[in-house]
Write a sequence for this structure.
């Protein structure tokens, strides 16, 4: 069986780590450079790949047009989620909980929304932006949008949690435990699995993510980021792909999220259940490789990327 991942970053490379033992010949294609990669390789194999693929998936939402769009599983989901405006409209359509929000077009003032939905706003560019990029905090009148955006009321919350799950082609779903995420400067630095008191919200989080996957007819791994407000969960964003907050599953679960995604998109059987043990994932951000990490209590996953400020270059998983 031969599969293709659109995107040539570390998420696809980590799928490559498990592909061969599933009997999958996994290739990756960079839609920006039109170059092919194989398995876990971070160096290009050139601009020629195999003649055909049994299935095509993606490691990111925002994709330029490629020769493989006609074969891409979940294409309509990627198109929807790459723009935050239809994403927010979908939550409202499905009556799923999210913060009060409104639309801001380029050049619009946020003053009316400040008066209508909250005294503090988080303004997010409709497309692009990650790890805190493309976002603005607005607390005073006078803000004018620099791009087409959405604006959300800034909600006081106790913590950010996320849920990663999978949906097979026959509609069967499995979920990992809810995890707690910690950020610095908008970048995920640590994930704790499971989240303390996970059982309070596990069922509600599964309801939210399951409703999204079923409505979209999604196949594969999907994640949803949520705000725990004490008395309710609110959706922050969804991600139709393997997710940073699921990296702990590589060493803390019987089946990691990367294998689970490949099984689903390739039509291979899912496990009877997901088993796990308490694990912490720490991101390595903007640092050079340190061999002393190998003497620690955790397992190191290095992405072979050149370090630069704010760039995720690896992570360490350790059991609790």
């Amino acid at each position: 069986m031969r599969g293709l991942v659109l995107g040539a970053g570390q998420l696809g490379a980590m799928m490559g780590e498990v592909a061969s033992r599933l009997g999958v010949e996994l290739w990756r294609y960079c839609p920006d450079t039109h170059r092919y990669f194989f398995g876990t390789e971070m160096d290009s194999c050139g601009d020629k790949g195999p003649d055909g693929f049994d299935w095509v998936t993606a490691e990111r939402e925002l994709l330029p047009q490629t020769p493989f769009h006609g074969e891409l599983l979940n294409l309509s989901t990627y198109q929807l989620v790459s723009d935050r405006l239809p994403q927010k409209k979908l939550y409202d359509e499905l009556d799923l909980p999210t913060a009060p929000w409104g639309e801001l077009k380029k050049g619009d003032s946020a003053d009316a929304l400040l008066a209508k939905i909250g005294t503090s706003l988080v303004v997010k560019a409709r497309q692009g932006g990650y790890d805190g990029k493309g976002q603005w905090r607005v607390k005073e009148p006078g803000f004018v949008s620099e791009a087409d955006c959405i604006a959300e009321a800034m909600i006081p919350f106790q913590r950010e949690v996320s849920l990663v799950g999978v949906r097979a082609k026959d509609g069967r779903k499995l979920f990992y435990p809810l995890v707690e995420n910690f950020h610095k400067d908008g970048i995920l630095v640590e994930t704790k699995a499971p989240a303390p008191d996970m059982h309070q919200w596990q069922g509600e989080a599964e309801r939210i993510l399951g409703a999204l996957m079923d409505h979209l007819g999604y196949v594969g791994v999907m994640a949803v980021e949520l705000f725990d407000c004490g008395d309710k969960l609110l959706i922050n964003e969804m991600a139709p792909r393997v997710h940073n907050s699921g990296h702990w599953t590589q060493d803390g679960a019987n089946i990691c999220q990367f294998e689970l995604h490949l099984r689903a998109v390739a039509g291979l059987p899912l496990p009877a259940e997901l088993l796990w043990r308490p694990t912490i994932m720490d991101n390595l951000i903007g640092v050079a490789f340190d061999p002393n990490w190998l003497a620690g209590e955790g397992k190191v996953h290095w992405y072979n990327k050149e370090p630069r400020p704010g760039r995720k270059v690896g992570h360490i998983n350790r059991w609790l």
Notes: The mean pLDDT is 95. The radius of gyration is 20 Å.
